[in-house]
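To fix ideas, we close by showing one paired sequence and structure record:
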Amino acid sequence: LSVLYKQGRHLEKRELKEMAKFFINQAKQYAAARPNYPIQLFEFIASKTPCHDLAWDVGTGSGQASRSLAGIYKNVIATDTSSKQLEFAAKLPNVRYELTPPVMSLSEIEQLVAPESSVDLVTVAQALHWFDLPTFYSNVKHVLKKPDGVFAAWCYTNPEVNAAVDEVFRRFYKEKLGPYWDKARRLVEDGYKGIEFPFEKIMDESTESQTFPVRFVTEREMGIEEFLTYLRSSSAYQTAKDKGVELLTAEMEGEFVGSWREDGEEKKVVRFPIYLLIGRVGGDRV
């Protein structure tokens, strides 16, 4: 992550360290079980940037988004505050990974990331809800090219498997994970509809509905162990674990295993709805 927020205020140093610890503990599980993003998502985003010279992927984690961006943009800067997360990121010749502090001044942005008005695209995958948005948006507008530089941020919501598994998951999500989610999770549950977005919105012109955020779906084939690893990778699970509470008890695991086996298929396609905020920085046009 780059710039964090919690409950409408800046985090204390102690809280920043605690939040960072969650993502350090999750790093290996994130790399192993989190879904990748569909190529259609990146093609749509890239079609909105006139140039494909430089992209900045903020809160890159283990680099799922930066890998896809590297196939489209000449150079990618991928930043995160967790060295453990970056250890699991794929090393590519046109991707520069940078370990950054949680809060950066404009001079640090220019030193560690890119100069003013030099970036074609800034992306944030599954992390915008943690940021101090006014500060972060100011930094984004500083580095994006004017007027056509693009900012894109997306989140994916809860997995969809089948009726049996989904019923168990809904109970687990509400009754077990529910008390341990940070308030920022509500922004994800709402598909980023309620999040501040001070950019010129870009709609999906290929559909009649013209909805915003723009909706995509990503899919991942999983077995039950991969699915359980995905559940353990959530920040709510990690919060509970740090408090000495095991949410995936033997009984709970048994319910998931039983529902998973009902259709006789060991591997299943798990679907994750994606909601994309995308817009141009705007400004004076020459």
